[in-house]
Amino acid sequence: MPCLAQADDVTQPPDASAQQAGLVDVASLAPDIDIDMRYLGSNNFTGAPVPGYHANICYLRAPAAAALARVQQHLLGQGYRLQVYDCYRPVQAVQSFVAWAQAPADAAAKAAYFPNIDKPDLLNGYISATSGHSRGHTVDLGLLDCRGGACHALDMGTPFDFFDPRANLGHPHITPAQQDNRELLQQAMQAEGFEPYAMEWWHFSHPLQREQAQALDVPVH
């Protein structure tokens, strides 16, 4: 998530669907991707379903969706699968994150997601008033290891949305195995043009159409 900035200007017809807004359901291109949209339920840093999420669907702009499908196909050949936590994010969800960050902290959320950062400081690099997710070219994800049959999540050193320096790329205080897992994901994503975000091992953006794409606020359903 880039640094705090002015809120996105939303450009879309009223009541537009995701498809009418130019978004593609990634599962239609890569049905083997594991979709685990964390903001649909309460298993996220806010502790509640996030406004704008009504279905477990990963939407992206067409170039990013096609590139992610190619990443999945490459990883399947090695015995891995992508596990997606977030894709297109409605502007209303982004705004709800900012409001949450400005509200008083609760001890359970702090212990689980930002133990070493004061809640207001999350607005300096972790939570932003604008997001590439709302433009449909950014995705948050991890890896599943399926080489033994049943799939299990690879250990990346921190959970998803753990707002802490340990989630930074190249952090020195993770194990060699955790670093190897991060590099496996990063190399697979970069091979298809995705760019990593240094503060979050799970966060990647696809550069095609990044400047032209406008923020959207159609719900995920």
From TrEMBL:
InterPro entries: A_A_dipeptidase, Zn_M74/Hedgehog-like. Gene3D superfamilies: 3.30.1380.10. The record marks 89 as: Transition state stabilizer. Binds 1 zinc ion per subunit. Belongs to the peptidase M15D family. It catalyses: D-alanyl-D-alanine + H2O = 2 D-alanine. The lineage of its organism: Bacteria, Pseudomonadati, Pseudomonadota, Gammaproteobacteria, Lysobacterales. Zn(2+) binds at residues 133, 140, 203. Catalyzes hydrolysis of the D-alanyl-D-alanine dipeptide. It is an enzyme of class 3 (hydrolase). Its EC number is 3.4.13.22. Its cofactor is Zn(2+). This is D-alanyl-D-alanine dipeptidase. It holds the Pfam family Peptidase_M15. GO terms for molecular function: D-Ala-D-Ala dipeptidase activity; metallopeptidase activity; zinc ion binding. Keywords: Cell wall biogenesis/degradation, Dipeptidase, Hydrolase, Metal-binding, Metalloprotease, Protease, Zinc. The active site is at 200 (proton donor/acceptor). The keyword Transmembrane helix does not apply. GO terms for biological process: cell wall organization; proteolysis.
